[in-house]
From TrEMBL:
Protein's name according to its UniProt entry: Release factor glutamine methyltransferase
InterPro entries: DNA_methylase_N6_adenine_CS, HemK-like, N5-glutamine_MTase, PrmC_N, RF_methyltr_PrmC, SAM-dependent_MTases_sf, Small_mtfrase_dom
Entry function: Methylates the class 1 translation termination release factors RF1/PrfA and RF2/PrfB on the glutamine residue of the universally conserved GGQ motif.
UniProt record, GO biological process: methylation
A GO MF label: nucleic acid binding
Positions annotated to bind S-adenosyl-L-methionine: 121-125, 144, 172, 187
Gene from which this protein is expressed: prmC
Entry binding sites for substrate: 187-190
Catalysed reactions, as listed in the record: L-glutaminyl-[peptide chain release factor] + S-adenosyl-L-methionine = N(5)-methyl-L-glutaminyl-[peptide chain release factor] + S-adenosyl-L-homocysteine + H(+)
NCBIfam families documented for this protein: hemK_fam, RF_mod_PrmC
Lineage, uppermost ranks: Bacteria, Pseudomonadati, Pseudomonadota, Gammaproteobacteria, Alteromonadales
Stretches assigned to the Methyltransferase small domain: 106-195
Record has Ligase as a keyword: no
Keyword Zinc: no
Length: 282
């Protein structure tokens, strides 16, 4: 029996993943591209090209892993974010398209040519390094409590050739004594530990420590809002990603902590996703 052509492999993969994936055709395409290490254009320009024995074995293994629920990004070990390619691992969250909203909003507030920016809980480094790539004259600091995450973020920094970012191991602000920033951004843990969605989809394979927070998901958000007042320059901005149903709670806490100009912005799906506020003490 001959090996699959590219078009046959794509059709097989999509069919095999239909019972277990919400996006079987896209998953099959990404896994096939990772198998052959070619561009999407190649896939559709040469649909009749046959897989080698090694490629076919690898592709079938990828499809089997995905059918068992393993995230595509963990299989390929990469995920695109902000048009950059980030290495991922089970030690961190997988970067998600909705988080690009946070990057866009941060860039809107980075109005000065130079400045200092902090990313709390950086994970893969996706937010920090995306911002550093767009703000070459800014100094970006990114911290994470998990050493594995810091090492991965540093690896991504090197791979992307970014020189204006520093990755540190820190329990939120613990390694930042005396520092001040013009912008602080974070996608912290914000899921209620009792949320049933934790048993569904890709999050089953991601570290709980990066997902859940006490007080129905608000504990880390409240800590960051409270503590950032010591680390923001006057008129600096704090931007936080949060759950679709937490916008009002986050706005109320920002107000309680005396921030100004508090707004919530929606993500690509039309859900409340990022709340930002300015620290301007009177």
């Amino acid at each position: 029996m001959s090996n699959y052509s590219l078009s046959q492999a794509l059709a097989f993969g999509a069919s095999a993943l239909t019972p277990s994936s919400e996006s079987p055709k896209l998953d099959a395409e990404v896994l096939l591209l990772a198998t052959i290490n070619r561009s999407r254009t190649y896939l559709f320009t040469w649909p009749e090209k046959e897989l080698s024995d090694e490629q076919q074995a690898r592709f079938l293994s990828f499809i089997e892993q995905r059918s068992q629920g393993k995230p595509v990004a963990h299989i390929t070990q990469y995920r695109e974010f902000w048009s950059l390619n980030f290495k991922v691992s089970p030690a961190t969250l997988i970067p998600r398209p909705d988080t690009e909203t946070l990057v866009e909003l941060a860039l809107d507030k980075a109005i000065n040519k130079q400045g200092k920016l902090l990313d709390l809980g950086t994970g893969t480094g996706a937010i920090a390094l995306s911002l550093a790539s767009e703000l070459p004259d800014w100094q970006v600091t990114a911290v994470d409590y998990q050493l594995d995450a810091v090492l991965l973020a540093n690896e991504n920094k090197s791979q992307l050739g970014i020189t204006n970012a520093e990755m540190l191991q820190s329990d939120w602000f613990s390694a930042l004594a005396g520092e001040k920033f013009d912008l602080i951004v974070s996608n912290p843990p914000y899921i209620d530990p009792q949320d049933p969605h934790l048993q569904q989809g890709d999050v089953r394979f991601e570290p709980l420590s990066a997902l859940i927070a006490e007080k129905k998901g608000m504990a880390d958000l409240e800590f960051i809002i409270t503590k950032s007042r010591e680390y923001l320059n006057e008129s600096g901005w704090l931007l936080l990603e949060h759950g679709y149903d937490q916008g009002q709670l986050v706005r109320d806490f920002f107000a309680k902590m005396a921030y100004k100009v508090i707004t919530t912005e929606k993500d690509l799906g039309g859900n409340d996703r990022v709340t930002l506020a300015q620290w301007a003490p009177e």
